[in-house]
Every structure is written in C-alpha cells, then in structure tokens.
Design goal:
It is a single chain. With 428 residues, this protein is of the alpha/beta class. It has 2 domains: 312 residues, Adenylosuccinate Synthetase, subunit A, domain 3 (Adenylosuccinate Synthetase, Chain A, domain 3); 95 residues, Adenylosuccinate Synthetase, subunit A, domain 2 (Orthogonal Bundle), CATH 1.10.300.10. The chain has 13 helices and 20 strands. The protein has a 10-stranded mixed beta sheet with strand order 9-7-5-2-10-1-11-15-19-20, with helices on both faces. Strands 14, 16, 17 and 18 form a 4-stranded mixed beta sheet that branches. Helix 3 crosses helix 4 and helix 5 crosses helix 6. It is globular.
C-alpha cells in the first residue's frame, strides 16, 4: 500500500484539503509534515464547512489517524482551540498524535514575528504574524522548545532562559518593547502539559510500523512549492520545506517509502503576501476571480492576489516535487468567461523564457506570454465524469495537462465534497 504526498503546486490555497478529503476514506493515516497555523484548509462536508489551520484535514474522516509530525511548529493554544471547536461539532479528535520532536511556538515567537515584520517597512514579507518564522529560526539555531520539553520543567526552564537571554536584548534595545519574563513563558507552557501528554508519541516510529503493516499513509503539505524556503520565490516564502522532499525530513519516513506525489493546482493562480507573481491581475478579471472564487485567506481573511494559470510554474513544481498526478481545483470559477488566457512562457529582457527563471530579479520582471482558450457558460458543478464537462472545458483541461508536466487525474468543479471529476485513480 502506498505512501502518498499531497503538495500545493502554486503559491498555496489550491484546495489541498479537498484533495486530502477525497482520498481520506481509503487511507489510514494523514500526516501534516510542515508549517504551522499560518495556513488553512477549508473542507465542506454536506452543509457543514470546516476551516482547519493546524490540524491535518484527515481529522474529519472517521477511522483515519491524524498526525502532526516533527516538521511542524505547534502553537498549543491554537491546537487546543481547534480541537475544542471540532469536538463541539461532534467530530472525534481522540486519535490525534503529535510528534515529541515537533517544535513549539511560544508567546515570544509571536511577538518577534509582529515587531520584526513592521520593522521591515516596505520590505515586508507578508508573514501572518503567528510566530512561525521565529520558531523555525530557533529550531535551526538550536535554541528551540520541543513538545517533549514540556514534560521536564528543568529542561524547559533552561531552554526558555537561554532563548530569552538574547531576545530580550533585541526587544528592549532595538524594538523598544518590554522584556518577556521567563516565568510567564514557562508557566504558560507547563499549563498545557497534562492535556497534551496523551497525544504525544514517537510518530516516525508509528508511521514506519504502519507502512510495514501495509497501511496507507498520506502526507499533507502546508503552504506550497512556490513558498518553499529553498525552492520558492525567496525571500517571499514560508519558513519550512513545503515540497515533497519535506515530507521525508518532516516526518522521519525515508524518501524511498514514498510512492506517489499529488500536486494541487487551481484552474487559475493566487497568492497571499508579497513577492513576484507574473500573471497577477489588477483589473476586473482579477476581481472576478477573487469574488467568484471567494479568494480570501482561510486563516487570515486577507484578499488573495489573483491571476491566470501559469504553466511554467506548474512545470517547475512538477519537476521539483516529482509530481505523478495533478488535481485541478476550482474549474467552475472560470464558468462564464468568454476567453481564458493561460501563461505559456515569459518575456524577460526581450527574450522568450519557457521555464521559471532562476534569478529572482528576472522572475520579478517576467512578462507573461498568453495563449487564449475559449470559455464556456454551462454550469459544471454537477459534472461527475469528464464527458459531463462542456467541450471547451475539456479542451482547457487537456491543454493545461499538456503544458504542466504531469497528468491531471481529478478536477474540482464546486465547493461540495463530492463536486469532483476523477479521471485516474490517485492511489493506483
């Protein structure tokens, strides 16, 4: 049975939760392997809409064991808030497992995130201010707090003292903020320990044993490839590895165990935050995509920047991740457009460029070269097979597939859980 990775193949918000939910009835474990509560998944089940930020979306499927793995940074207060909200709606959250090696977001991480972003002025990255970056920075600097530290007060206090020793100088002398007291942080973190303890496990071992038993494990990436700290539009990126390779380091599962990589793309493109975005629209077409697609952040509520589909970006993400299948979402949003442009290449300094430029400056100045496709006016939300789609919608999908570097195996045609056209088995 397979280990499958689902990743965002653009700048995030592609609908990974919907794709995970599509497969969840056939899998045993859903693993979040990177990021924190700086991104969200929206899953619609019947008349119910669930907005998840830190939890894997597989937590909504009965029988699935959700796992927060070691590559995630955990805001425990947010975690408990999400669990309580789901429990109040009748969702069983008792099977959640959290890696003992996952790092914890503290109050001083959130404070530093907000003040440093404001300090950047016009060079702001567009962070959510939730402490994600500073928590990952502490992890790399080897002064981070891990989940397991909450169960040993002496170790926890030593680590908090060591971390705040330098941070308080920065807060007071550079940012003109008050120093953060060690006791405040330690007491808050210790207050979580008793409730957290039953959820904590050696999740790398648990997942290894599951694969050895022939069970199916789904690795659910947060953010997206173009926000990956190594392979994205640096420095306008997230602080973790959101590509398929991050599933191995972020979970403790070897890369040879991964069988399939599913990339999620919208039928157009969006991003939140600053950074290059060649196909971004500033006219009524952009507003149409934003309004019709309800393009506002699940976590932040920020309006998303909207643009046409970018085929070079899709080819790039297919290559970087080793994508075996694409899932295209929100095809229904394009209904009603007479003509649909698709970016097939860029013009950089008067030259045609068919791939994403390696130079940040070139990518920032890249001008999209478009090919136009005929639109359709028919309602496609009821389509459940490819033949149910209008001819022009079929042609659009096939053209995108030919440009993007991997087959399009499923197509989202509406927000409902079952509003999807499956062309190929994602697990086969």
């Amino acid at each position: 049975m397979p280990a499958v990775v689902i990743i965002g193949a653009q700048w995030g918000d592609e609908g990974k939760g919907k794709a995970t939910d599509l497969l969840a009835g056939r899998i045993d474990y859903v693993v979040k392997f990177n990021g924190g509560n700086n991104a969200g998944h929206t899953v619609v089940i019947g008349d119910e809409k669930y907005a998840l930020h830190l939890l894997p979306s597989g937590i909504l499927t009965e029988g699935v064991t959700p796992v927060i793995a070691n590559g995630v940074v955990v805001d425990i207060d947010v975690l408990f808030g999400e669990l309580d909200a789901l429990s109040a709606r009748g969702v069983d959250v008792s099977k959640l497992l959290i890696s003992a090696n996952a790092h914890v977001i503290t109050s001083y991480h959130r404070t530093l995130d907000k003040v440093t972003e404001r300090f950047l002025g016009k060079r702001q990255i567009g962070t959510t201010g939730r402490g994600i970056g500073p928590a990952y920075a502490d992890k790399i600097n080897r002064v981070g707090i891990r989940v397991q530290d909450l169960f040993d007060e002496n170790i926890l206090r030593q680590k908090v003292e060591g971390s705040l020793n330098s941070k308080n100088h920065l807060l007071v002398k550079v940012y003109n903020r008050r120093a953060i007291l060690v006791d405040e942080v330690v007491d808050e973190l210790l207050s979580y320990a008793d409730r957290l303890r039953p959820m904590v496990a050696d999740t790398a071992l648990v997942l290894h044993q599951a694969l050895e038993r022939g069970e199916t494990v789904l690795f659910e990436g947060g953010q997206a490839t173009m926000l990956d700290v190594d392979h994205g539009t640096y420095p306008f990126v997230t602080s973790s590895s959101s590509t398929a390779g991050g599933a191995a380091t972020g979970s403790g599962i070897g890369p040879t165990r991964i069988d399939r990589v599913i990339g999620i793309v919208k039928a157009y493109t969006t991003r939140v935050g600053a950074g290059p975005f060649p196909t971004e629209l500033f006219d009524e077409s952009g507003e149409f995509l934003r309004t019709t697609g309800f393009e506002f952040g699940t976590t932040t509520g920020r309006p998303r920047r909207c643009g046409w589909y970018d085929a070079p970006v899709a080819r790039y993400t297919a290559r970087v991740n080793g994508v075996t299948d694409f899932v295209m979402t929100k095809l229904d949003v394009l209904t009603g457009l007479e003509s649909i442009p698709v970016c097939v290449a860029y013009e950089v300094d008067g030259q045609r460029v068919d791939e994403v430029p390696v130079s940040q400056s070139d990518f920032h100045h890249a001008v999209p070269i478009y090919e136009n496709f005929a639109g359709w006016s028919e309602d496609i939300t009821g389509a459940r097979s490819f033949d149910d789609l209008p001819k022009n919608a079929q042609d659009y999908v096939l053209a995108i597939e030919a440009m993007s570097g991997a087959r399009i195996s499923a197509i989202g045609v509406g927000p409902a859980r079952d509003a999807i056209v499956v062309r190929h088995d994602l697990l086969g």
